[in-house]
Amino acid sequence: MQKQTVLITGASRGIGKSTALLFASRGFRVFLNCRNSVDALKELQCTIQETCHTDCHIVPGDVGDPSCVRDIFQKISQVCEGVDILINNAGIAHIGLLMDMSDEDWDRIIHTNLSSVFYCCRAAIPHMVSRQSGRIINMASQSAETGGLAASPIYAASKAAVWCMTKSLAGEMGPYQVTVNAVAPGYIMTEMTRNAGYRDDMVPMKRLGTPEDVADVVGFLASEDSRYVTGMIVDINGGTVMR
Ligand code: NDP
Q1: Which of 21, 54, 106, 119 is within CB 3.0–4.6 Å of 69 for a Cys-Cys bond?
Q2: Which residues are designated catalytic?
Q3: For residue 142, which atom of ligand 1 is closest to its CA?
Q4: Is the dihedral of CA 122, 110, 5, 73 positive or negative?
Q5: Hey, whose CA ends up nearest to atom 40 of ligand 1?
């Protein structure tokens, strides 16, 4: 059977790294991306090759820049036909007041969190359509619904747009048997949220989330078990928002 290929953006640490380790442990061919932390990406590549003995490649680049995304997919095409599973995880947060934010802050957050999803989906979809199968999993956020506790309005807006794009694209991709879903993590302890002031007692389950808590749900959405699930936003939050 042909090896399934997964691209995980923002895989150098946090949720993306845990997700990469999960897919590698399941035998997928893994492409790892991030923008700046190329040494961390190389370290993860070595770990995966040594412990999981699976095919692992690094494709660094800014996914908020369309020309970088073209380069990333060009590199992927030198190794295989395309990406079967796309995980749009790369993201940045910005804590601060809207009145203090610059035009550059707006552009940076929107390009990284939202435009990247468009650029990567556009590049990945033709292969999925031709195979009549595929999985796209987007990283939304609890803040897309609540506005967020520590997140800026720009961050919350970017994630709300990802949420809506997920549903719209799921409709478009349905006839091709490509599922498109998103996850909405709550308070997950990573580098991004280190100084956000999250506490265990803010969560009904009395603990903050871990990157693995998110990765396991992403793994389910990428699996055959979720073949009839599309256009969904799956909350991963220990009960902080119940719908
Ligand atoms: P981290 O800050 O730990 O990791 C973010 C990753 O994204 C890093 O690998 C970073 O690498 C990469 N990245 C950032 N900008 C770019 C870019 N332009 N191009 C390519 N890679 C980029 O964050 P988390 O693991 O916490 O977050 C992962 C995702 O989950 C994000 O989309 C975040 O918004 C979302 N999320 C997180 C929550 C949480 O509580 N932690 C809650 C809800 C959603 P580098 O800096 O080296 O480029």
Answers
A1: 119
A2: 155
A3: 43
A4: positive
A5: 188
